[in-house]
Amino acid sequence: MHVKWYSIILLVILASPVPIKFMFSSDSQTPIQHSNAILADVPFFVRGPTVNMVTNESALIFWRTDGLANATVWYGLNESVIETVANTTLDTDHRVRLNGLNIDSKYFYKVSSNNIESPLYHFRTAPADGDDVKMIVIGDNRPTTISYLQPEEFKQMAQMIIDEEPHIILMTGDYVLDVSDNHETNLAGWAAFTNISDSMGHYAPIYAVVGNHDTGAKTGTLKLEYFFDAFEQYDEPSTYFSFDYAGAHYILLDTEEQNNEGRITGDQYTWLVNDLESTDSPIKYVFGHRPMYPLSHLGDSIDSNPEERIRLQQLFEDNNVTAFICGHDHLFNRLTVNGVVHIITGGGGAPVYNTQWGGAYFHYVRIDMNYNHLNISSIMLTGAIGHNYQLPYTGPLEIELRAIWNGSSNQPNTLPEIYFSEVPSQQYYSWDSEENQTELTGLPNVNGQHTLEVYALDSDDVWYYERFVFTTVGGVTTTPEQVPIIVDPLVLGGIAVAGVAVVLILLYRRRK
Questions:
Q1: Which residues of 12-39 are buried (b: 16+ CB within 10 A; e: fewer)?
Q2: pTM
Q3: Is residue 251 within 8 Å of 325, Cβ to Cβ?
């Protein structure tokens, strides 16, 4: 019997106790498949490895091979990675948990399947509760056409995020352009995304909310299996869940429930109430895809049901939620409402939206935090800071306008949305400098320009003031001819007497 020469080499490779280095391309992290002839039956790495569900003493390492293989993780506090955890069960999806890790420490790791190694990566375990943490948030990176190619801006920011070496990464939705009825098309689209997201996931755990482009809702039936496959998350296969990290509480919500898009209601709202009541963390983050106070997707966000939005805002206030962070609008915006910070971060690569409020630039958000201080910055592609906000906030009370913009033209009775950064002890509104009112009313029903003056008294008994200008269209048009002239009868009488006197004087002069 004749044996092919490459079969002998393959048997030697598989029998070798020395791990064989697996090669990745430097730009895409996809396998270089030259010289595959001798490795035709050896599984290749399809996904990962990524680090997931990190605590201050444990982590889960995930990777996927394109064939059945065993699994080993080498790890350690330096590049020698002398400790190992192995799983001899043959599988394609590999999940290996590392336990007994040191708190707030940098660990190096690599994985192996059938003696083929990944490159060496690293991650940090969680710090002690309340200690310094760096969190990155990015969202709305989806492509703009049916092409599966992810935006170059997303690729660039992924590398910037890797260079930041964050402890934890959050994503706010819309990772692919669409989920259709074509399974192969869906796989290709999500693979283009995970090729980039995994490059960040090598170094930090990623948690994500589902966006409206990620569900397949247009097909009539939600297809969430691709979203669940893209991320290793708590409580799978749930689209809403919570967890704690370094003393902060994280809540991820689903704004895309079928027939409840843009709403937090029903069982999810009940769960949210119970979850907030069960935590005593001084820092509470809530994430969703659609904003509560949108700038572009008006009526297509949580504002679509005003009463539910008011209820949700009050729930956040009552439970001292630090921030609600979302995407959907492709821009950056920060609005503080009654002490709750609302951040829209949708600049991950999809085309940015221009609005009167600005923020139309590609970005991600960096939050450096501990129990005493939060430093929130939007980071532009150039590395420059687009916006910075810090807590505790020590600036003036903010009076902000939403829904319609300063200088806009609107129908009569259109109600501007006015928000205060803290609950004012007193507030007043005045249209066209008329009498102050405690309740805000809509635009006057007279065509033309009108001014709205807003006054608010803060907790230090300091008054703050903002003035906004609007133009009413479609209302009543008034002209001087239409305005009746009302003259006092006494004035008319005086004019008549004066007229008689003038006539008498003229007659007297003519006689002379």
A1: ebeeeeeeeebeeeeeebebeeeeeeeb
A2: 0.86
A3: no
Q: How far is CA 242 from CA 5, 97, 245, 271, in A?
A: 55, 20, 10, 10
pLDDT for res 408: 97
What gap in Å lies between CA 249 and CA 322, rounded to an integer? 10
Q: In the predicted model, what is the mean pLDDT of residues 277-299?
A: 98
Structural domain boundaries in the chain: 5-124, 133-391, 412-472, 484-511
φ/ψ of 15, rounded to 5, equals: -85, -15
Q: Which two tokens stand for residue 455?
A: 């006054």
8 A C-beta contact, residue 236 and residue 261: no
For residue 451, what are the β-bridge partners?
469
Q: What's the DSSP call for residue 217?
A: G
**What's the whole-number mean pLDDT along residues 12-38?**
35
Residue 30 clears pLDDT 60, i.e. is over it? no
Q: Which fold has domain 133-391?
A: Purple Acid Phosphatase; chain A, domain 2 (3.60.21)
Homologous superfamily of domain range 5-124: Purple acid phosphatase-like, N-terminal (2.60.40.380)
Backbone angle region of 15, left / alpha / beta, with phi > 0 → left and psi within -120 to 50 → alpha? alpha
Judged by phi (left if over 0) then psi (alpha if -120 to 50, else beta), residue 464 lies in: beta
Rounded to whole angstroms, the Cα distance separating 151 from 235 reads: 30
Judged against a pLDDT cut of 60, whether residue 406 lies above it is answered with: yes
Distances in Å between the Cα of 207 and the Cα atoms of 41, 99, 101, 299 are 34, 20, 21, 27
- Mean pLDDT taken over the chain: 88
- Band (pLDDT 50/70/90 cuts) for residue 24 is very low
Please determine whether the domains at 5-124 and 133-391 fall in the same fold group of CATH: no
Type of residue at 480: P
Tell me the chain's radius of gyration from C-alpha atoms: 32
- 176-195 tens-digit pLDDT: 999 999 999 999 999 999 99
| The total number of residues written for the chain in this structure | 512
In the structure encoding, which two tokens stand for residue 131, read together?
A: 């200690």
- Say if CB 339 and CB 324 are below 8 A apart: no
**Closest listed residue to residue 398, CA positions, set 342, 344, 314:** 342
Q: Look at the block and give the residue holding tokens 């009167």.
A: 356
- Residue 494, classified by CB atoms within 10 Å of its CB into exposed (0-12), middle (13-18) or buried (19+), is exposed
Q: d(Cα 39, Cα 184) in Å, to the nearest integer?
A: 26
Rounded to an integer, the average pLDDT of 487-511 is 46
